[in-house]
Design goal:
With 273 residues, the protein is an alpha/beta fold. It has helices at 25-32, 40-52, 55-76, 96-103, 116-125, 145-152, 176-187, 206-217, 228-232; strands at residues 6-8, 14-16, 82-86, 108-113, 134-139, 163-167, 195-201, 239-240, 246-247, 265-271. The protein has one domain (58-203, 222-271): Vaccinia Virus protein VP39 (Rossmann fold). The protein contains nine helices and ten strands.
Length: 273
Amino acid sequence: MIEVGIRMGDQGEPIAEIDIETPHAARIWNYWMGGQDNYPSDRAAGDAVAAVYPDIVRMARLSREFLIQVVSYLAGVAGIRQFIDVGTGLPTMQNTHEVAQHIAPESRIVYVDNDPLVLAHARALLTNTSPEGLTTYFPADYHDPDLILEQAARVLDLSRPTAVLLMGVMGYEPDLAVVRDIVGRLMAPMSTDSHLVLWDGTATGDAVEQGGRKLVEAGGAPYILRSPEQLAGCFEGLEMVEPGMVRITDWRPVRRIGTTEPLDAYGAVARKP
């Protein structure tokens, strides 16, 4: 395995050198979504998974449709103007700030990720789309909710309704109790009418579980597939927005390109009462 080196950026911040020979979760996902920010190791791992679970490509691309749907709902129907997107991943099309600020130009979006590669892309691509709003990012790991909240509070008013987005990232934490603790700590200081969005791949078919094993065999980071019921348990104390915990393709669907066949990915939106 290649060691990841560290160099210093123009502002004196540490920047990790890119390890192109080890498959990288964000780059593999970027490959499945049809992006260009990936390397042969990422494509090999992605192809190994897709060979036994072809729906992974559809999952990656339809997860962006889910993001567009839920952010449109939050910025439109729910009137949310503040968003914390945790585990951002590599920027692609229709990112959170673009969707929110298209509907409500004054929206303020904070992106959070612990990956230097993601943050390097964020610096270049996650820029404000409206003069009234704000788009920013900072490095943090979702295992440190206190740091995330501290940093977010510098640019957001957490006494006002805020949406916390955990989009396909909590499977990297193997302990469900830890996942629930992280979610609970992130939502604890949020005001009434704040919202949580969470989706993940689920253990709802043999093929998707085989795909998870292939990912590890190819050198990718393990991803824990849970049941929809386990994911629903992460919303304790919150009020589910209709239709509740469903396949991400079934969350208030609009006309889409592609099929509507069952997908091994579930998610929900919930309001803090």
